[in-house]
UniProtKB/TrEMBL annotation:
This is Phosphoglycerate mutase-like protein. PANTHER family: BROAD-RANGE ACID PHOSPHATASE DET1. It holds the Pfam family His_Phos_1. GO terms for molecular function: catalytic activity. It comes from the Eukaryota. InterPro entries: His_Pase_superF_clade-1, His_PPase_superfam, PG/BPGM_mutase_AS, PGM-Related. Substrate binds at residues 9-16, 66. Signal peptide: none annotated. Transmembrane segments: none annotated.
Length: 210
């Protein structure tokens, strides 16, 4: 098992600045802003500071453009020989359907979702938080099998999205739906750090969600 598991939300994207972009550009093609690029570069430096000289790093990256750009910026801070990467579709953003509708329709959906609950509410033609939880569960099963390899790197970094990061931690630590609903998503390029206790071989959440 790696000594650290680190979840990172992507840097600021064009949709974080102008949500209407979802009406014309597919979600998976939305890119980082210049600020997002700068955030990702700083995240790479922060990651480098967390590493010990002997550490190696395994990146798992959502296939969306903004997460891949974030990874590319982060990885430049590390020596090439100490990391490897893998694109993982199960780490993609919650599916909101295809192109999003008019502002008034999206406002209605978001109000309804807030009232119903983010975990169980299924976005029309998209996913519920529970659907994302299910694919995160299969990804974590894959991770546990990978950890059995003696060559698995000592640090795991998952570059993904806000809701997915929260659901990953919920699944890992067996949080209730109520605990999940009480917390906020990560900010852009914010880290969540899970550290292994060498005596118990279990992980402690070092970062608190807001």
């Amino acid at each position: 098992r790696p000594r650290l598991i680190i979840l990172v939300r992507h840097g600021q994207s064009e949709a974080n600045v102008d949500i209407s972009i979802h009406r014309t550009i597919p979600d998976h093609k939305i890119k980082l802003t210049q600020l997002g690029v700068e955030q990702a570069i700083k995240a790479g430096s922060r990651l480098n500071e967390l590493l010990k000289p002997e550490d190696t790093v395994q990146f798992y990256v959502s296939p969306y453009l903004r997460t891949r750009q974030t990874f590319e910026c982060m990885s430049k801070a590390l020596d090439k020989g100490r990391w490897r990467d893998y694109e993982e579709p199960r780490l993609r953003e919650q599916d909101w359907g295809n192109f999003q509708g008019p502002p008034e329709e999206m406002a209605r959906i978001k109000m309804e979702r807030a009232s119903y609950g983010h975990f169980f509410y299924r976005i029309p033609n998209g996913e519920s938080g529970a659907d994302v939880y299910d694919r995160i569960s299969t990804f974590q099963e894959t991770l546990h099998r990978a950890f059995a390899s003696p060559n698995f790197p000592s640090v795991l970094v998952i570059v993904t999205h806000g809701l997915l990061s929260r659901l990953f931690v919920m699944r890992w630590f067996h949080w209730s739906v109520e605990e999940f609903e009480s917390l906020e998503n990560l900010r852009c390029c914010e880290f969540v750090i899970m550290e292994k206790n060498e005596e118990t071989n279990k992980y402690k959440l070092k970062t608190k969600f807001r």
